[in-house]
Amino acid sequence: MTHVLELLHAIASDDAQFSFLDAEIRGQVRTALAAGIGCVLKTQIIQNGNKTGWCSQFAALTLEPSSARKM
Q1: Distance of alpha carbon 29 from alpha carbon 4, whole angstroms
Q2: What confidence tens digit (pLDDT) does each residue in 37-67 have?
Q3: Are 53 and 45 in contact (CB under 8 A)?
Q4: Which of 5, 22, 33, 71 sits most deeply, having the most CB atoms within 10 A of its CB?
Q5: What's the confidence (pLDDT) of residue 28?
């Protein structure tokens, strides 16, 4: 997730490396970046009123922490 958000940030901030992308695509990337950051913040675990970290896996529909698959 971190590297995806870094890539989206580079595109959204008009990095010359991505100058081939048009304004419409950059607008879509800005929207995706905001949604990604919102998701990261929403899934942060709060324990005793303090934001502590993230779990390894989340439920796809509710974004609630879930247990990992059994192997």
Answers
A1: 11
A2: 999 998 898 889 898 888 888 888 888 888 8
A3: yes
A4: 33
A5: 97
Amino acid at residue number 48: N
The domain spans of the chain are 2-44
Chain centre distance of CA 19:
23
Q: Is residue 33 packed enough to be buried (19+ CB in 10 Å), middle (13-18) or exposed (0-12)?
A: buried
C-beta of residue 14 within 8 angstroms of C-beta of residue 7: no
Helix, coil or strand: residue 40: helix
- Give the separation between CA 37 and CA 6, rounded to whole angstroms: 11
Confidence (pLDDT) at 11: 95
Q: With contact defined as beta carbons under 8 Å apart, do 45 and 51 qualify?
A: yes
Q: Where are the alpha helices (DSSP H) in 1-71?
A: 2-12, 23-42
